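Escalation from tier 1.

The customer reports that the assembly of two entities below gives different structure tokens on two consecutive runs. Tier 1 could not reproduce it. I'm attaching the input and our single run for tier 2 to review.
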Amino acid sequence: MASQRPSSIGAELSATGVGRRHRCFQFVIGILVTAGLLFVFRSPLLRCLAAPLVISESSPMATTMLILGGDLRFDEAAQFCREDLHRHVLLEESPRGRLVRLGILPDPVELGRKELTRRGVRGDQIDVVSWTDPEDSLDMELSRWLHEHPQAQVIVVCEAFSSREIRWRFDRELPRLLARRLAIRPLHHRSYDLSNWWHSKPGIMLFVRSWLGLILPAIQSKESRTWRECNPELFTPAA
Amino acid sequence: MQSRVIHTGGVISTRSRLWYRWCRRLALATVALSLIYLLSPIALRWIGGWLDVGERLSTPVDCVYVLGGESSTRPFMAAAIYRAGYTRQILIPEGLPAVDEFLPPEHQIQREVLLARGVPRESIQLLSGSVDSTRDEARILGAFLASRPDATIAVVTSDFHTRRTRMIFRKRLPGSRDRLHFIATPTDGFGRENWWRFKDGVLWYTFEYIKLCRELFR
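Tier 1 run:
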């Protein structure tokens, strides 16, 4: 009896070792299979990850198009105005950055006017919603504009991946009745869209930026996000 | 009767032990979460600050090399170095066309900023090579240094980008280690003390850590 005990313990230990090795093997196989499946189905998976960022709404009675961004935005607006000569285009005038103030980058409103005129849009069809005070915001100014134009139905054209973020922002910041007068039209970039965004650096950056744009406002207070320009006059390169 | 009392006592004792264990877990979780909440600004500031290895210039350098990107700040720092008399030449890498067709390419913006800040045209040199990354920028600086082997260079980039830049440039240009200085430029809107509050701050700092890890394994 005494001689049998150590061998039974050895057998138990060996069985435990085999069981552990077996579990380990199963784990590795599981990881490899998962990785393989992720690799094989990467395209639909990545497409699914980006799909919630894009929202498209229709507004058949639209009278105005607000340009917030997107590739070929001026062509889209010119086409919108060509379909009905009573329609208007709304440009956003935000606080001008340092490079615009220095005249190095074009002023977005001047650029918008120039490009729209070049595409056949009349000057009286172009309107500007202006918020030049950094403490102000587009939402506040847009709310004011919608109150002043009670008949207006607005299509907002923007970069496709930012469309959900913009929709959420309007829903959060504007009264419900005003927010419902805005419809989002996403514009995909010519070099990347939902089906291939992960192939280009700007596409990846925009994808991450857009998800952060959805997540961060939900967990942060507005005051903590106040953006300030630094002052280059204070740059001191020397010791 | 006796056995019943003992049995009930056992149940009570097991329940109270479970209750005590859950209370302890809850208390530990509360303490841990409170500590994370209280210490997170300190930790996040440290995480942001770790990326910044920028130096201050103590002696003049032959050239200042402004890396592409953040054109609203980096060329301003290069111009400040020039105006302080620490260099006579500024190098800018030739970048790719902008994603937005209505914007000029990066190197054109940088050149315009330098001119606007009083740097003479003849002091600005464009290094050709259509760069798309920091590694490309190191590569074309290497080509420039081949013709100027003794030149000292101040590499100007954003504060959160200095550590990775230093790593890449030292790896790609091992012979120039002592001749390269890395100058940090503040970023518009956010810095090490508040980067986690901004969309672009989270984006840039997170990407910087990811790229830093990628660079370690290259």
